[in-house]
Amino acid sequence: MKRISYKNLLSCLLLVGVLAGCKKDFLDRKPEDTIVDANFYQTNEQVLAGSAPLYNKVWFTYLDKPSYGIGDGRGGTLFTGSQQIENIRLETKATTSDVYESWQSFFNTVGQSNLLINNLTKYAGPAVAENIKQHAIAEARFMRGLAYSYLTMNWGAVPIITNNNTLLQDTTIARNTPETVWEFIIRDLRFATENLPATALQKGRLNKWAAEGMLAKMYLTRSGVGVSGGTRRQSDLDSAKYFAKRAIDNSGASLLQSYEDLFLMKNNNNAESMFSLQWKYDGGYGAGNSVQAFLAFGSSITGFSDGWGGDVGASKFIMDKYEVNDKRRKATFMYPGDHYSYIHNAVPDPQNPGKQKVVELDVPVNSKDAATGEQYNSRAWVKKYVVGRPEDNEGKVLQQNTEINTYMLRLADVYLVYAEAVLGNNASTSDQLALQYFNAVRARAGVGAKNSITYDDIYNERLLEFAMESQAWYDLVRLYYWNPSKALSIIASQDRGGYRIVPDKVVGATSWVIKEDPNYNLPRRLSVTSANFFLPLPAIELTKAPNLNKPPVPYQF
Amino acid sequence: MLSPLLSAFGQAGGRRITGTVVNAASQPVAGATVAVKGTSAATSTTSTGTFAINAKTGDVLVVSSVGFGTEELKVGTGSVVNFKISEQASRMDEVVVVGYGRMRKAEQSSAQVSISAADINKTVNTTVEQALQGRAAGVYVTQNTGQPGGGISVNIRGVNTIGGSNEPLYVIDGVQIQPGTVQYGATASTSPLSSLNPSDIESMEVLQGPAATAVYGSRGTNGVVLITTKRGKSGALRLGYNYLYSLQAKPTILPAMNLQQFAQMTNEIRYIAGNGGQGPGEFRDPSILGMGTNWQKELFKTSPLHKHQLTLSGGSEATTFYLSGEYFNQEGVSIGSKFDRASFRLNLDNQTRKWLKLSTNLSYSQTDEALGSTSEGLINTAITMAPNVAVKNAQGQYAGADETNGVSVQYTPLNPVAIANLIQNTLKRSNALGGISADITLLKGLVFRTALNGNASWSDSRYFSPNYQLGNRAASIASLSLSTGKNTSYNLNELLQYNTKIDKHDIGAMVSHEAQESRYSGINGSRTGFVSNEVVGLSLGQAQGQQNGSYQGSWAMESYLGRLNYSYDNKYYVQGAFRTDGSANFGPENRWGYFPSVSAAWRVSQESFMKGISAINELKLRVETGLTGNQGNGGQIFSPLNSVGTPFGTGFLVGRYGNTALKWEQTRTDNVGFNLSIFRNRIQVEGDFYIKKTNNLLLPNPLPAYMGTNGQGAISTPTVNIGALQNKGYAFTVNTVNLDRSGFIWRSNFNISSNRTKITKFYSDVAVIDRQPWYIGTGSTASQGFLQRSAVGQQPWLFYGYVYEGLFQNVKEIETSARPTKSDGVTPLPVDPNGTWVGDIKYKDLNGDGIIDYRDQTIIGNPWPKLTMGFTNTFSYKGIDLSVLLTGSFGNSVYNFTRFQNTNPNNINLGRNMLAETFNYAKTEGTGASTVLTNPGGIIPRLTYNDPNGNAQRITSAYVEDGTYVRIKNITIGYNLPKAIVSRTKVIQGARLALGVQNLATFTKYKGFDPEVGAYVGQNVGAGDQLIGVDAGRYPLTRVFTFNLGVDF
């Protein structure tokens, strides 16, 4: 072997050594464009920024389609031949997209609430005021409790999760019994009532009274859980009444004078709103309200290429319930020939062939009977939460994004909760305060007062007051808890078939005839049984988590 | 082992020697290397086979060329030296590029396949990956889309990871580039390597064996493709011009229903659904209608492709250079697609001192793409668009669906021709790649090399949706989105190499250190409300509602590696290598990964006992084993917070479960192989067998949705090291010279490979990982969307669904069969037209519980081929040569989602058109229990209004089609103008004309456009969401006719 010059070799190795010297932190790379959990939650503002999205994005996947597919479609207030047909026809299956999507959304709310509580406990810095930390935890528990109320009302037994991190490797978790889920919900909401301030920190945030109003509704619903003999639990009814009254008296909330004004974007967080989802039209996909995209009858009233709701409208069942003078009808559904001054429509411009002009909306009449020449529509399109074009809303509309808040609890709801709690197990009530609240809702709608109210009165009033607000189905669930046969018979009586709505005039109509579509040859009346009243667990979820097939167990508090 | 090259730093001097190189048939050999033995002086022959080089009397000139044997001649006193060289299937003394060095092919102990410039230039390649197809055993190349500049899936030896990218690492002149498979969004279909001009490539080496890939450590698991660009050679200046013109034919149109059929079916559904009882007035008598609009004919066109290329190379003894410029322009066969590239390259080498060599590479390119037709799903829309709509209306404006399409007019697609012309979706990318290196010879055999390479790229994408009115659909508010991205990276490498030869012992050692860093960042913004469609910038839109954002990040890796080679007497070879990588993707405790490999080879043919066997020229046995890794994506150890706009100000949600314990994914590969050359090297066979075992699979933990992991505002699942998989396979390459007689030469290359991937472990035996992207739902209820499943014991990403057992022929058959249930999940549907009825699909009751529900789904197809092959035949006679490339794939299934989606007769209710076969949907006669099918034997179910049986919603085996195909990928016939003619011009030294056809014919049973289906790359597809082997409106590959003219000056 030839001798190597050690001097050369050494200098060479030295060269390697010099160049090799990477800085110690060369391989330490934190994300540069996002904040990491461990560095956040150091100030009051950061803590509140951590709870803010619990008011919108986590609920989005539910809002987007299931809110009206399940909430109204299954409830009987919505009709369509396509998009939501499985729900409308009570054929919601384990594979129906709304089943999985709503399940996702509620558990996203649960998971994000849990992580926020966990992160605040772990990372909140000394600069964070204790009451702010508790405020955020209270918001998280409110949202979690509310999400569980939707979960158990749709699926019955569901798994209660309070710490997502410890569950990352666990595939054994079982569902918990509805009774214990309801106890969990009540506890979460009670915590919220005790830790939220009497005055909201920011407009639209929760306060103590919103939490108490929601708690009242939860008690009212729970009063039927696990009871027998058709009698609701009086202690829960009393709690519902108690908290509803406190919320009404202390919140300072008042009914908005005009029902139609409730659904104008400029009236977000109005005096009647107690808790509503807080959308931001330009906050990115998932932060805006998207329902207009699916419910508006056409792109001519959204301004964008969305507006896919031409096949979606009121059910004949709900239309038959409206009294002629009920102002809620026009604020909820568009009848042919209706005029809306605050929504604009792009129509062909006769002066300018091939061009369009934007005019105040006269709801078009699209169909004509070939034999009789009668003009009609086969859908009474949805109006509620359809807000129109950007120019109708100070520009706050983008494709699939508007900024109208979604009511989760408004004063009218608490009024009717109070009335129902007072009615309780009685056939009727003439309680003065109950009547006062009940009639306040009716008066605003322009319909006459009642002197005595029954369960059916309240059920009907809720249908009309909250149609297209994702309530009809849950009202049926609340009834089903304590009187399943009545709930099933209501469903079986609903006309879920096709119809024609014929206006007296094509423009500026003042009256309408609503009749069965003579060519609709599917059954008009459908039913569910106690076997399929609740939703099936999502099929995809069951393949990933066969543990959900285990029998439900009581939750250990 | 690198001694022949590295020690060759002497300078030659001497006088000018000229000559020609011809083959056995006395035809000139172009591009042959002529070198002065023992020096770095080298040149290459022109297209007429001539060369000029400086040499002294007594020097030995060596000629070599791919496919020929080497010849040596001593320079005498004259100034002309002529060579005649003979054809060989391959040469063991060829020097090939390997990771961090070069070696002679004979010395290789690892599995590696080489592809030369000559191979690459035979096909029309927009991008580099296309040149790999059919050329290399073990490499499964599928074109994801026929879109110009579109991306390609390259899988080397199967699927190596479930969670991340399976694309190989590309190393261009020493610079590592790992393309992210697919980016999310409107630019998903583009190729990350499209900036490289394939004509600049000298060779591509596909490293497959563990010993070859393990020197790339944590980035080598998916295989490594080493790309070497052309460099100059000293001698006469060489100026070449090449022009390519191609005509891309329209695809074969999938027959869709014509207007008469469409009208008739519309009338029928109106009758069934009862919306007025009858179709629109215009449809009352379908027989008087015309054929309507054939949207595919309107969307597709015959399109040209041009490429101009100019190269200048040459240099002095000390300095050589290669300079090239290219302009490439391709219009797609679908309106709204195109690809342009302008690129420039300069490679410069300088032997500054006897002991110092400096080299530099610089390249710059710009690509410009239009992506409208893929990003808007127009290929599928052209099938579904209603034929009663005209392309343009009477006023000459683009038309759209109107009320004649019924209450569901909103479901009628937008006019695809209009969208292709209106939507402006462009992507411009610039890429600068360059580096400088110095080779310092410290001692004889001891070389220190240091190199600094950098890459900078920018991209600009623009998406403009103007305001338009298409029938009843209006988008009256225009929107514009712009985004720009920037990537910079550098790689610093120091390497010390020592080679020596002591008697019969050849020893080589290499140590190296490497640091790499990359940074990326980008911003995007969008506005709406443009008053004019002549939009130039965001500032013309409304400030209100504007959206903007940015991203940035960085990655780094530091590595130490070493390699020892030892060989004895050119018979026995042993190599050991070790690499350790520290990656920023992991936390401090798991940061460093260790990747050892060893290999050995025995050249049996060099043994004395083989001397008598003259038929065998070379026989080499190889064995190797090694560890490689995969580091996945960065940032997975952290739990980041995502920003969300809220009325209270920007809010933050947890974006992902972090996993601080994340570590490397580790693959151990064992490989045995052989190289055999027989009959004077006229037949050469190379074979490899391997087993790869991957552990600690990096994959997203498939947590249930109850963990808050799905939908908007979800917490993404953590990336974990759970699971294992195994790949087993073999690959053979046979190169032959079949005939070499009277000037007629016939050569073949045949390669065949097989691979089977099996998942051996997940976090539990029942665990599955599904891909079920929302973007290919099945209409009104996307819940039954297509699903690909990975489960233990299976190959990854198998098709999942129901087993199709035909259509119910009569009532009795329904009554005795399992049926889907009512919504209670228990009671079978009634046997009547509102339940399961004659003409509905009969599903197989797999679990025998008497009902059909989601539990009756199973694996219904496998997208992975059992065998893939490539077969090239080259014939040459006098100045004419002919090359034919066949490619084939055997045993894979394709899910024809396009056909599934477009043979649903109920689509007529939505005003959508369908494939023509749908018109033969199941029709019945008789009433009640005596109802029977009038057209038995079809596969299309009956027309219903609400489809209770789920005919159109359940994914079934009926649309799993055999994806086996053999394709005549390319035929090229070329003619070198005779020297006698060329020389008269005085200006031109050589000229070549070539005519070719690409994708001439495909032999397949597949019913869609094209059985070659890679990953699905439509709009909104992320890398972890891609479907494999699913045809969902894929941009078809079409026949391409090419004319090529090359001139040397």
Give the gist of this structure.
The complex is a heterodimer of chains A (557) and B (1049). Chain A is of the alpha+beta class.
Proportion of beta-strand residues of chain B: over 45%
Number of discrete helical segments of chain B: 11
From the helix content, strand content and strand pairing of chain A, which structural class follows? alpha+beta
SSE-based structural type of chain B: mainly beta
Explain what you see:
The complex is a heterodimer of chains A (557) and B (1049). In chain A, strand 11 and strand 12 form a beta hairpin. Chain A is globular. In chain A, helix 7 packs antiparallel against helix 8 and helix 14 runs antiparallel to helix 16 (455-466). In chain A, the strands form eight sheets. Chain A has a two-stranded antiparallel sheet. Chain A has a two-stranded antiparallel ribbon with strand order 3-13. Chain A has a two-stranded antiparallel ribbon with strand order 5-10. With 557 residues, chain A is of the alpha+beta class. Chain A has 19 helices and 17 strands. Chain B has 1049 residues and is mainly beta. Chain B is built from eleven helices and 56 strands. In chain B, helix 7 runs antiparallel to helix 8. The longest helix of chain B is centred in the N-terminal third of the chain and has 15 residues, at 259-273. At the A-B interface, helix 1, strand 1, helix 2, helix 3 and helix 6 of A face strand 23, strand 25, strand 26, strand 27 and strand 28 of B.
